[in-house]
Amino acid sequence: MSILLKPVRVLYVIYALLLWLAIMFLILPPIILASLLGRIRGGNITFYFLRLWADLWFPMVGIWVRKIREDNNEKGTFLYVVNHRSYLDAAIAVKVMGLPFRPLGKIEMKKIPFFGFIYRQSVVLVDRASTAGRAASVREMMTMVRKGISILIFPEGTTNETNQLLTPFHNGAFRIAIETQTPLKPVLYLDSGIRFSHKRMLDLSPGRCRVLFLPSIPVAGLTMEDLPALKQRVFSVMHAALKEHSEYPDVPVKQQAI
Questions:
Q1: Has this prediction a pTM greater than 0.85?
Q2: Which domains does the chain have, with CATH numbers?
Q3: Where does the Phospholipid/glycerol acyltransferase domain start and stop, copy by copy (predicted)?
Q4: Sign of the CA dihedral running 125, 103, 29, 111
Q5: I need a labelling partner for 2 at 20 to 30 A (CA). Which of 146, 182, 191, 239 fits?
């Protein structure tokens, strides 16, 4: 049966990819115009067009993104901390996160033809190979937060390719939260790795894609001495919620400072 379904899966992936590109080309001209307004105002406008792209693409490929709110629809400026399982995660963020926000993104992605231009307009770039580059991205994130723009960070640092629900967190998100006194908002993508595996391109499949919003975690009054405890608290909250709602298997993991 799997052999018979393989041609159908290939056609579905080609259709999804072509549709992805077609909608992106349609929104490129207004994004170019928005870029003339600067990184703050222009970037905010860019996300409305990216949300339009996501609102069209997901249902047209049969992926139904559904929010599950356990946070009573909290409003405000947050530092979103999100688990990372799939290439779909960035697209899901565009669809569900409160605007305005900016994700933290790898600087290497800006070199991709066509997509790289949109990427540069919509993320805070980080060069992990450069100390100066990392410091510059931290300064930009702090500027965004102080202007009322939320930041999205994958605290695991990269896509989780293990059998653990979560891998150990890096310190960056928690350092920024404390330095800017911005509450942390845990958000969990429960099905993205099932919909689109990071291992094989042909694993894209239609179906549900749940997003769980958890109550924010305040950092008011915390100092850098509190960072390890804060990181462990957020990890524990996210891990417990994933264990309750997720269909992924889990291997116990001990959180550690990174």
A1: yes
A2: 63-245 (3.40.1130.10)
A3: 78-192
A4: positive
A5: 191
